[in-house]
Amino acid sequence: MHRKSNVGAGLLAKAVGQSLISCLIHRIREQARSHIFTALCQIVRRR
């Protein structure tokens, strides 16, 4: 009996998952940067 090998089958799934995680991290960092800038502007306006 000859079986198909699925050794590399998960590599594409891992690459897609890593790409999605990278996009999410980038988005979160941009939101954090924007939030920090907004908070600093509010502090400066109060003075």
Describe the protein.
It is a single chain. The chain is mainly α and 47 residues long. It has one domain (12-47). The chain is built from 1 helix and no strands. The chain has one helix spanning 9-46. The longest helix has 38 residues, at 9-46. The chain is rod-shaped. The N and C termini lie far apart (79 Å).
Overview in brief:
With 47 residues, the protein is mostly helical. The protein contains 1 helix and no strands.
Which properties best describe this structure?
rod-shaped; 47 residues
Shape: rod-shaped
Q: Please state the CA-atom Rg, rounded to the nearest Å.
A: 22 Å
**Structural class assignment:** mainly alpha
Which series of helices and strands comes N to C? H
> What fraction of the residues are assigned to beta strands by DSSP?
under 5%
Number of domains: 1
The count of strands amounts to 0
Uncertain spans = none
Percent helix, as a range, is: over 70%
Instruction: Please tally the helical runs, counting DSSP H or I stretches of 4 or more residues.
Output: 1
Cα end-to-end separation = 79 Å
Largest sheet: none
The pLDDT mean sits at 77
